[in-house]
Design a protein that fits this description.
The protein is an alpha+beta fold. The protein contains 5 helices and 4 strands. It has a domain of 107 residues: Vanillyl-alcohol Oxidase, Chain A, domain 3, CATH 3.40.462.20.
Length: 164
């Protein structure tokens, strides 16, 4: 039986560095997937065919393993098989509108196949989707932690946990 060697963490974390140069402007949408249905696959293929920048990307990450069995953390949707991330990216601010439009249009075709969002892949305008990143019990617990430790909402420059 061949031996497996673990990919060093530093190597894993730097794998996409070349596709994200310093100063790159990114806009993204993401969600969890239960399966790679044929209509979803076609939506991803169609979106890839309409990319407007050489930096645009569609990531499809397989989940499972420890994330599917570990409990007690803030990660939600532990039963999902995949997470998809649609990224519009460019280096020139003049290209922002085209990349944001591509991302939103691509997401409109892919979103019906998703459930919830991964909190680290939510865009700045996804504030209304923050609750979708967590299961109800975790969301309730996070709201209580926020009320206890940050009642004045000092830490709000993020995907904010709303307590009301």
């Amino acid at each position: 039986m061949p031996t497996r060697s673990a990919l060093p963490y530093q190597v894993l974390q730097s794998m996409l560095d070349a596709s994200a140069p310093h100063g790159q402007r990114n806009y993204w949408k993401s969600g969890y997937l239960g399966a790679l249905e044929p209509d979803l696959q076609q939506a991803i293929i169609d979106a890839a065919g309409r990319m407007v920048s050489p930096f645009d990307q569609i990531h499809l990450n397989q989940l499972g393993g420890a994330i599917g069995t570990n409990t007690g953390g803030a990660v939600g949707h532990r039963d999902a098989a995949y997470v998809v991330n649609v990224i519009g990216a460019c280096t020139d601010p003049a290209d922002d509108a085209a990349n944001i439009t591509w991302t939103r249009n691509s997401w409109a075709a892919i979103e019906p196949f998703t459930s919830g969002g991964y909190v680290n892949f939510l865009a700045g305008d996804d504030g209304d989707r923050v609750t979708s990143a967590y299961d109800p019990a975790t969301w309730t617990r996070l709201q209580q932690v926020k009320r206890d430790w940050d009642p004045d909402n000092v830490f709000h420059i993020n995907h904010n946990i709303r307590t009301t």
